[in-house]
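Aim 2 progress. For Reverse transcriptase, the working sequence is reproduced below.
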Amino acid sequence: MQESIDCVFEVASSMGLTVNHTKSSVLSMVPDGKRKKHHYLTGRNFRIGRKWLPQTSCVERWRYLGIDFHASGCVTLEHDIKVALTNISKAPLKPQQRLEIVRGHLIPRFLHGLVLGNISDDRLCMLDVQIRGAVRTWLRLPKDVPIGHFHANIKDGGLAIPSLRATIPDLILKRFGRLGSSSWSVAKAAARYERIRKKLSWADKQFRKFTREDPVTGLRSVSRFWRERLWSSVDGFELRESARTPASTKWIRVESSHVSGRDFVQFVHTHINALPSRVRTSRGRRIGREAELHCRAGCVVRETTAHTIQQCWRTHGGRIMRHDRVVKLVADAMASDQWSVVTEPHVKTSKGLRKPDIVAAKGGVGVIVDVQVQKNECITSAFLALALRVMHTC
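Predicted structure tokens for this construct:
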């Protein structure tokens, strides 16, 4: 070993290169065949040039090419991710801020180590469960919220939290799959290595589990898998229309900085149909209890979220306030675009009084706008989507 180090030092010196002594260390393992164990040397046994190299003990950790190692091999990242999630939960942050940290910082921080390290499907599944558990706690979501809601794209109605079980195999295929086509002979030789081939085979098998083939392009997509997973669920069925209007889901990530944490949690609950109602909280135990599912306000219909928001007499005042707020938003937007706007004028006709929401005129063109919030949509989502449609029409 000392002769090899001396050779490296001499060749490097002839090229004008010097070895950084402070960034170098040695791990010396001496086998003990009798006890079938290894001894780790701690004394100064090797030097580079005239400087002794420090010995690394069996309990120390070091980093090489972005991967942490200890005496037994690569360091597993489960503990580090758990500690990071705990620190995020303890920090005085809004729920939407915690989600953004997980999306943009926490998960990308560990991708390199998970791709190059030793990983298995069970470990990735456990990490996904830990991350979803933390998100459920931050947003106070019930346990029966569909998994697709966590991992689907925001435009599809999800929270856009990357799934490690789907992301890591995809990255392995992209990084290791190009070795065979490289012009460098060392990379081609590495592609023929048995361990690399097994890793690629495992990644391809896992990747096909979490992808769906696009019927037009023929390409396999992870986002398509989670989108179908969300839209096929009971709670996510109505979100299939969200992809047509990006403004209906934009508030989840872009326009949520000014929203309080409490309101953001309520918005997410409404968006994924997680608000408590008699029908939702009685899932799996409704046999023989139909009478207990009727609305608590006395309506002779089932108490669902849609009924409470759109039909129940107790929320009639709130619906009027919501409608008037949407009218005001659209009217202000049209007025800022040089429209002459009149809100809720009283027009007497031969068939009775007519009171349209908005009457506007511009350049000899007049329009009548009737504001509606469609049933079974999120209050906030419909609010933004309707405003976008009307302003686009104007």
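The radius of gyration is 30 Å. This observation will guide construct design in the next reporting period.
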